[in-house]
Specification:
Mean pLDDT: 92
Number of strands: 4
Distance between the termini: 25 Å
Strand order of the largest sheet: 1-2
Shape: globular
Structural class: mainly alpha
Radius of gyration: 19 Å
Helix content: 55-70%
Strand content: 5-15%
Number of helices: 10
């Protein structure tokens, strides 16, 4: 499957040629080899970025990377413009693009249309896989640290020790929280409006549910959900 053009354009913002090439090579071939066996996982373009809490739908991985990158770049600008600080934006970009790169290896599609842990994901987490592969591929220590620390002090093996790592951590947490809360709210509203749960919901559908509820009330939301349900049955 061809690499999402939005990811390609994001990588092109990395000025350091060597780092840019390393990032692109990994995105185009996000595989890892263990004991002579190559693991490839779900395609990046169709993979979720979470199983249940956030970005838990096809395409969620790419959306999460793009959204986190936008937040990270905004934070870089704040550091430079407001605080007159220094930040290596190349490291930030590389770290935010790759922070979840091996999540697709740890997921598998379930029979009910959702996602579950893959055989590899049952034994190794995406962070461990990423750190090992980034070291093997000769990435700068600063970038490896960003990826290793992106879960923060409470949820990761190590907390951010650099401004760049802190920026990526905050960007990741912010987008994950935003997406997860919107999905949760949309599911709740849909359940209250129709009495039926929605098993899988994309971010665009979730934001539309919240907008319709705010602008048109319960009746408008009920009509939207009934129309969507009928459309899905027809398809």
């Amino acid at each position: 499957m061809k690499l999402d053009e939005r990811l390609r354009k994001l990588v092109e913002k990395i000025k350091d040629r060597s780092l840019r090439e390393k990032v692109m090579e990994l995105l185009e071939n996000p595989t890892i080899e263990i004991e002579g066996k190559k693991f490839s996982g779900l395609p990046l373009e169709s993979s979720p970025a979470g199983i249940s809490r956030h970005h838990s739908y096809p395409g969620g991985f790419v959306e999460h990377v793009l959204a986190s990158a936008e937040i990270a770049l905004a934070l870089c600008k704040v550091v430079r413009k407001i605080y007159r600080g220094k930040v290596n934006q190349d490291y930030v970009l590389a770290g935010v693009i790759l922070h979840d790169i091996f999540k697709p290896l740890t997921y598998a599609e379930s029979e009910n249309g959702g996602y579950m842990a893959s055989p590899l994901g049952e034994k190794l987490d995406h962070l461990t896989l990423a750190v090992a592969e980034l070291i093997r591929r000769g990435f700068p220590l600063e970038v490896v640290h960003i990826v290793c620390a992106h879960h923060g002090y409470e949820a990761g093996p190590i907390g951010p020790k650099t401004v760049e790592a802190l920026i990526v951590h905050l960007a990741d947490v912010t987008d994950s929280r935003l997406n997860g809360e919107v999905l949760r709210a949309a599911r709740y509203l849909a359940l209250k409006a129709t009495g039926e749960e929605i098993s899988q919901l994309t971010s665009k559908e979730a934001f539309k549910i919240l907008r319709v509820k705010a602008e048109e009330g319960w009746e408008g939301l009920k009509k939207l959900l009934e129309k969507n349900n009928n459309d899905n049955v027809d398809n």
